[in-house]
Each structure stands twice: as structure tokens, then as C-alpha cells.
């Protein structure tokens, strides 16, 4: 199989927060890989913008070091990296003042796409958007890329959307969620809408339940200050898990076009029922002999912020009436794994003896670390001695099915940045989506705040609090094992 790389048009890309961690780890190495693949045109320009005092040469040194450390080291020896660095520039800028803006404006070219990546704190979004407008940097071909968090609740999300809308049209605003750029997430739409095999079965008549798990082995680390005012519900459920839920549950769009897809996702969010507090479990990881616990990390011995959430929700529409969706996410769990699991119902009648066992078809979509899709199928166990049934996977792990080229699948940020340049908003959230997600999330957070609930402790390296297991056990179900 030969993958097809389609170059994008020439562009100017400005990375506000160009010396930050996200730029160093993801954005700059991703752009380099797109350059190496031939997708980034030779006329493209990338400008880092931040408070640090640097000139072009010192920033190029910074970029070189970032790519060597996080870019896999490919193409660094044959001169490609040196060629890429010729496209790099830097402006020292004051996001809330006047310094550097005239310099930045002088570097922009007319008649091509301008993209401005806001890799900064949300508090600076409005200031930067205003200055882009005031200094004439915003053109009809301009796009802005906004990193989460998109507000902290419905009120702040509305305020942020209103601020951005004062200077940019909704068609120019790209709210980025890197989960939507993952190859398997997009393959989820291909599996659903490109195969007659699945779509007729994709409803409450045939699906028993759906699980969505995003498990991390790391703690909050250096994000303690931010995380303790956010928690897993705001940091993960309201955006990442919500988007995965929308893609798994939405109706087929009329066309694979940005607004058609996002219209269907919005319908899912608006159809979510309020969650009963008995169907929510919050947890907080404890300390081990060698590692501090959550409260130590955030330096708050009385913190009631959750590092783990599990919940059961329902979607009130004809397709999914009565089918539960189980969501869970947490830090310091046993393995790093993001997975969507569709568990189909039992056959209506089994012709086999009871000792043949109970078997179900399970479609598992693994998002990380090993992207791929498996479908569990029931077959006869080989050998004599009667009809013994076992489950075997039909496996499409990308690394196995696609060979070495699977290793060349673009990182999520690479794909999404190229979509920004193309002007394709399909994999980006619209403002009304963000507000609808907060409208569903806010009552959950307000409810446990009002009740004064304290998260359940759980051991680091476990699967979370025991109450999360009971959430499924009460329904006669169980979580799929968290596996790496």
C-alpha cells in the first residue's frame, strides 16, 4: 500500500507560545515531519512568537533541539533539517501590549493562508485576537487555532466564544482536540459508514452497551496548579470523551463535510440525558512507597478534585434508547490505554449446550498506544470432544495489517495543522458544540459540589476505585480490562 501525500498551499503559520512545551514536543516536530513527507510547500513560513528575547538564529537552534529530541531523529543527517530551518523565524511579542506586533505584521505575506496557533493560556486568547485585528494581521484567509480548555463552564465558554467572534468568523476558528486527529478515530467513521456490515447493527436492538476508556499511567505532574481547579471531568470528559461519544453514536451525516458532521455530533450532545448521581464515581489516586499521591502533587492536603471519573449515561433518541454508555478516565492507572468497545447483544437463542459458554461479539477500537481495530468472533475450539466455543479476534492492528507504512501514519497534530491550512473544519469543534457539552457537564459538577462529595481513594497502578467496578456490576456487566 502506498499512501498519497497531497501538498497544501503556501502559508504563513504563527505559533503564539512558540517556546512552550506543546510547540517543542508536538507542533514543531509535526511540522518538520510534514516537510519531510513533501506535504509542506517550500514557500511556507513558520514564525514563533513568545515573550522570550530571541532572534531568528537562536530560535532555529531551539527548533533544531526540539526536533532532534521529539521528532524521532529522522532526516537530521542528510540536510533536510537544515533546509526546514530556513523556513523558521521568530518575533519577541507582548500579547497584552504593543511590543513586536509591527514586526510580526511586517513578516506576513499577502495573498496566502495565514494561520495563527494560540498555544497559550486561554486568558490571552482575547488579547491576541484583538491585536491580530487591530494590527491588520487578520484577513479573510486567516485562521486561528485554539487549544483547550475552551472555558471552565458554560458561562466562560460563552464568553470566550463571544470574544473570538468579535474578531473572527466561526468559519475561521479551529478549536483543536488532538484525539480527533488520531488515525483510528477517523477510521471509526470509515468502519461505521463505509461498511454495510456494521451500520444496520449500530443501534439499541443489537448493541448491549458501549464503553469508552481513556486511561493514563502518569499523575498530574507539573500541571498540579491547573488540574486541581479542573479535575478529570473538565479536563477529559467534557472534551475528549465527549467527542469520542459523539462519533460512536451520531447519525450518518448527509455528506462528509464539516458542518454536516458537526451538526450530527451536536444532536448527540443535546440528546444526552442528565446523569443520576448514583451513576457517577469519582476517584483520587493515593501515594505509593516511591511516588507521591494526588494531594501531594497539587500541594493541597484537603483537595476534593477528582483524578478519576466513571459514569453511565444514556442518549434519548430512537437509535440508542435503552443502551447505556459507560465512560471512564483516570490518572495513575495500571496501563496507558484509550479504547472504545462496542459490546453486541447475545444471540436471541443459543442452540448449543450450556457448557459451551456465553459468547458475545465485541468490536474494540484501540486509539492508543497501539492503534487498531479488532472484532471478536465466536468459533468452535479446534479438536475433538464436542462443541466447545471460543472467541477469537479478527485483528486489524495497524502495525501488523499495514506493515512498515503504519509507522509513518501522521501524528494527530500533524494531520490537524494541515487541515487548518486546507480550511477543513471537520475534525474541529464548533462553538455550539462546546457550549452544549458544558450545558450537560455543569449540572454534574454542581451536583457533587452541592452534596460535598469527596472522591473515593484508589491505589496508583490499579483500575480505579472499587465503586467503578460496582457501577458495571450492578447492571450485570463488567469493564473491559485496561491493557497496554
Automatic annotation (TrEMBL):
The keyword Signal does not apply. Gene3D superfamilies: Dihydrodipicolinate Reductase, domain 2, NAD(P)-binding Rossmann-like Domain. Substrate binds at residues 178, 182, 216, 235, 331. Pathway: Carbohydrate degradation; pentose phosphate pathway; D-ribulose 5-phosphate from D-glucose 6-phosphate (oxidative stage): step 1/3. Residues 189-480 form the Glucose-6-phosphate dehydrogenase C-terminal domain. Residues 14-187 form the Glucose-6-phosphate dehydrogenase NAD-binding domain. Its EC number is 1.1.1.49. Pfam families: G6PD_C, G6PD_N. GO terms for molecular function: glucose-6-phosphate dehydrogenase activity; NADP binding. NADP(+) binds at residues 17-24, 51, 148. It comes from the Bacteria. GO terms for cellular component: cytosol. PROSITE patterns: G6P_DEHYDROGENASE. The active site is at 240 (proton acceptor). Keywords: Carbohydrate metabolism, Glucose metabolism, NADP, Oxidoreductase. GO terms for biological process: glucose metabolic process; pentose-phosphate shunt, oxidative branch. It catalyses: D-glucose 6-phosphate + NADP(+) = 6-phospho-D-glucono-1,5-lactone + NADPH + H(+). The keyword NADP applies. Catalyzes the oxidation of glucose 6-phosphate to 6-phosphogluconolactone. Belongs to the glucose-6-phosphate dehydrogenase family. This is Glucose-6-phosphate 1-dehydrogenase. The gene is zwf.
Amino acid at each position: 500500500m502506498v499512501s498519497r501525500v497531497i501538498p497544501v498551499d503556501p502559508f504563513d503559520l504563527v505559533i503564539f507560545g512558540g517556546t512552550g512545551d506543546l510547540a517543542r514536543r508536538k507542533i514543531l516536530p509535526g511540522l518538520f515531519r510534514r516537510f519531510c513527507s513533501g506535504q509542506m510547500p517550500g514557500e511556507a513560513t513558520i514564525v514563533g512568537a513568545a515573550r522570550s528575547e530571541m532572534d531568528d538564529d537562536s530560535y532555529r537552534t531551539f527548533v533544531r533541539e526540539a526536533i532532534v529530541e521529539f521528532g524521532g531523529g529522522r532526516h537530521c543527517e542528510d540536510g533536510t533539517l537544515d533546509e526546514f530551518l530556513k523556513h523558521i523565524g521568530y518575533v519577541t511579542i507582548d500579547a497584552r501590549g504593543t511590543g513586536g506586533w509591527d514586526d510580526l505584521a511586517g513578516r506576513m505575506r499577502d495573498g496566502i493562508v495565514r494561520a495563527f496557533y494560540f498555544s497559550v493560556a486561554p486568558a490571552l486568547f482575547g488579547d491576541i485576537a484583538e491585536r491580530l485585528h487591530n494590527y491588520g494581521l487578520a484577513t479573510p484567509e486567516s485562521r486561528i487555532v485554539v487549544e483547550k480548555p475552551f472555558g471552565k463552564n458554560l458561562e466562560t465558554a460563552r464568553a470566550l466564544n463571544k470574544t473570538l467572534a468579535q474578531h473572527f468568523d466561526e468559519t475561521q476558528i479551529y478549536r483543536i482536540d488532538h484525539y480527533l486527529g488520531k488515525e483510528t478515530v477517523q477510521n471509526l467513521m470509515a468502519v461505521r459508514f463505509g461498511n454495510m456490515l456494521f451500520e444496520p447493527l449500530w443501534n439499541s436492538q443489537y448493541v448491549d452497551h458501549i464503553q469508552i476508556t481513556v486511561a493514563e499511567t502518569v499523575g498530574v505532574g507539573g500541571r498540579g496548579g491547573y488540574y486541581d481547579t479542573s479535575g478529570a471531568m473538565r479536563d477529559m470528559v467534557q472534551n475528549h470523551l465527549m467527542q469520542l461519544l459523539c462519533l460512536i453514536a451520531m447519525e450518518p451525516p448527509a455528506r462528509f463535510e464539516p458542518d454536516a458532521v458537526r451538526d450530527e455530533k451536536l444532536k448527540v450532545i443535546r440528546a444526552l440525558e442528565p446523569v443520576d448521581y448514583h451513576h457517577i464515581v469519582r476517584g483520587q489516586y493515593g501515594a505509593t512507597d516511591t511516588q507521591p499521591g494526588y494531594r501531594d502533587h497539587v500541594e493541597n492536603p484537603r483537595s476534593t478534585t477528582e483524578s478519576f471519573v466513571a459514569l453511565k449515561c444514556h442518549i434519548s433518541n430512537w437509535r440508542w434508547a435503552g443502551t447505556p454508555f459507560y465512560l471512564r478516565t483516570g490518572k495513575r492507572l495500571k496501563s496507558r490505554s484509550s479504547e472504545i468497545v462496542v459490546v453486541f447483544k447475545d444471540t436471541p437463542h443459543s442452540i448449543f449446550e450450556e457448557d459451551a459458554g456465553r459468547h458475545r461479539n465485541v468490536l474494540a477500537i484501540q486509539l492508543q498506544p497501539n492503534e487498531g481495530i479488532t472484532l471478536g468472533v465466536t468459533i468452535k475450539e479446534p479438536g475433538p470432544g464436542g462443541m466447545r466455543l471460543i472467541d477469537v479476534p479478527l485483528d486489524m492492528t495497524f502495525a501488523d495489517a499495514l506493515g512498515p507504512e503504519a509507522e509513518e501514519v501522521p501524528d494527530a497534530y500533524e494531520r490537524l495543522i494541515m487541515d487548518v491550512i486546507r480550511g477543513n473544519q471537520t475534525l474541529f469543534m464548533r462553538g455550539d458544540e462546546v457550549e452544549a457539552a458544558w450545558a450537560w457537564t455543569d449540572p454534574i459538577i454542581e451536583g457533587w459540589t452541592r452534596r460535598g462529595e469527596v472522591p473515593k481513594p484508589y491505589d496508583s497502578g490499579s483500575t480505579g476505585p472499587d465503586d467503578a467496578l460496582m457501577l458495571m456490576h450492578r447492571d450485570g456487566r463488567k469493564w473491559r480490562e485496561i491493557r497496554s
